[in-house]
């Protein structure tokens, strides 16, 4: 995927967002402000903007680096093809044709791995039509396909497995490309494992089209129309997903898109209740290139338990959309924190090519306005 997840920005943002440079995190709030330290946070918090759309290491590690194709590595349908599959020692092939009156058959292949390291299950739902019945191989109409790999140690399952599922996403019930129409396929990747005696589940979902050549096998021009990712382990669930201005997951050219990065925990002993990062941007006219992407705003909301800083919010908004690879010329930012005793603190300000101006309002009535240079050095304070 070409759109970055902006994780490199978060560390700098959270420094400002939690206001740790401005107040203490104890029940006794001193109200003291260190303008120089706050200026360093402001300067560092902006530095990520120069590469806001660059690819970075992200939590979507369950998504593949290249767009998968819908071509099957094993021919599954005809008797002659099945003979070739079964010729491999140890493979088991079954064909369920009891549903042919409903228009499809199901072909399943079990493939043992060497040294008992894994076992693979391939299942294809094939349309029961003239292409299935003829003697020509590799021309079948595939309706659904899945592959599950169960990882083993000496033929004993380890608890880890990987699964990929292909299904139709354009309404014609087929994975195959149909000439003369828009073709799309939904692909779901699931990784399951046991980590530190707790179940780990990662799921990635994409909807992909074959691009201008109408061929999924040439991945260079394939287009991703939807993408989301989630990971659940122990008490926490992490997710990454897109929404357009209509609130759907369709990634739309020249539209206002929102990339959400979210973490939540349901158990009361976890200090984090929820964290959500909302990055508004425009993917431009070319969904295959980041060069025309434009950044609109960054919004972060956090809710915590069992700590003094309970609710926090941070917003960063340039005055004009920021083209990929460029820095914002000017704009506004704001941060707020609500404490367990019901009091709150805020930081609001503006920035330009010459520097920053920030006003801090503390929980004990302390107010301070500071003007900074571009490097974060204090110019004036009152």
Your description of this structure?
With 382 residues, this protein is mainly beta. It has two domains: 7-70 and 177-381, no CATH class; 71-166, no CATH class. The chain is 9% helix and 45% strand. The protein contains four helices and 19 strands. The protein has helices at residues 7-17, 35-47, 79-86, 130-133, and strands spanning 92-96, 104-112, 118-127, 142-153, 156-168, 185-195, 198-209, 223-233, 236-244, 257-265, 272-282, 294-304, 309-318, 322-323, 331-339, 344-351, 355-361, 367-373, 378-381. The protein has a 19-stranded antiparallel β-sheet that branches. The radius of gyration is 27 Å and the shape is elongated. The relative contact order is 0.15.
Continuous helix count: 4
Total separate domains: 2
- Percent of residues in helices: under 10%
Number of strands: 19
Low-confidence stretches: 1-35, 37-87
Structure keywords:
single chain; 19-stranded antiparallel β-sheet; 4 helices
List the helices and strands and how they pair.
Blueprint: H1 7-17, H2 35-47, H3 79-86, E1 92-96, E2 104-112, E3 118-127, H4 130-133, E4 142-153, E5 156-168, E6 185-195, E7 198-209, E8 223-233, E9 236-244, E10 257-265, E11 272-282, E12 294-304, E13 309-318, E14 322-323, E15 331-339, E16 344-351, E17 355-361, E18 367-373, E19 378-381
Antiparallel strand pairs: 1-2, 2-3, 3-4, 4-5, 5-6, 6-7, 7-8, 8-9, 9-10, 10-11, 11-12, 12-13, 12-14, 13-15, 15-16, 16-17, 17-18, 18-19
Helix pairs in contact: 1-2
In short:
With 382 residues, this protein is mainly β. It is built from four helices and 19 strands.
């Amino acid at each position: 995927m070409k759109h970055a997840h902006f994780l490199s920005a978060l560390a700098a943002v959270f420094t400002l967002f939690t206001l740790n440079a401005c107040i203490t995190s104890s029940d006794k709030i001193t109200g003291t402000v260190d303008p120089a330290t706050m200026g360093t946070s402001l300067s560092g918090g902006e530095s990520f903007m120069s590469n806001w759309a660059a690819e970075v290491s992200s939590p979507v590690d369950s998504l593949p680096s290249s767009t998968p194709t819908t071509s099957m590595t094993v021919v599954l349908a005809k008797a002659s093809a099945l003979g070739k599959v079964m010729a491999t020692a140890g493979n088991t092939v079954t064909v369920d044709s009891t549903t042919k009156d409903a228009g499809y058959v199901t072909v399943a292949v079990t493939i043992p791995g060497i040294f008992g390291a894994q076992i693979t299950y391939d299942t294809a739902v094939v349309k029961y039509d003239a292409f299935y019945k003829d003697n020509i191989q590799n021309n079948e109409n595939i309706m659904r396909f899945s592959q599950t790999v169960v990882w083993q140690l000496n033929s004993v399952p380890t608890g880890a497995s990987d699964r990929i599922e292909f299904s139709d996403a354009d309404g014609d019930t087929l994975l195959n490309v149909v000439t003369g129409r828009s073709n799309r396929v939904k692909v779901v990747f699931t990784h399951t494992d046991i980590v530190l005696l707790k179940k780990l589940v990662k799921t990635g979902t994409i909807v992909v089209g074959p691009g201008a050549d109408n061929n999924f096998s040439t991945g260079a021009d394939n287009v991703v129309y939807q993408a989301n990712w989630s990971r659940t382990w122990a008490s926490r669930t992490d997710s990454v997903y897109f929404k357009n201005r209509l609130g759907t997951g369709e990634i739309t050219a020249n539209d206002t898109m929102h990339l959400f990065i979210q973490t939540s925990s349901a158990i009361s002993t976890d200090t984090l209740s929820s964290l959500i990062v909302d990055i508004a941007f425009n993917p431009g006219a070319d969904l295959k290139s980041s060069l025309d992407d434009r950044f609109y705003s960054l919004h972060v909301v956090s809710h915590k338990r069992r700590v003094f800083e309970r609710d926090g919010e941070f917003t960063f908004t340039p005055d004009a959309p920021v083209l990929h690879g460029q820095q914002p010329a000017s704009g506004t930012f704001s941060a707020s924190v609500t404490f367990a005793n019901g009091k709150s603190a805020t930081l609001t300000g503006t920035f330009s090519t010459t520097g920053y101006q920030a006003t801090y309002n503390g929980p004990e009535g302390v107010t301070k306005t500071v003007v900074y240079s571009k490097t974060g050095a204090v110019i004036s304070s009152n």
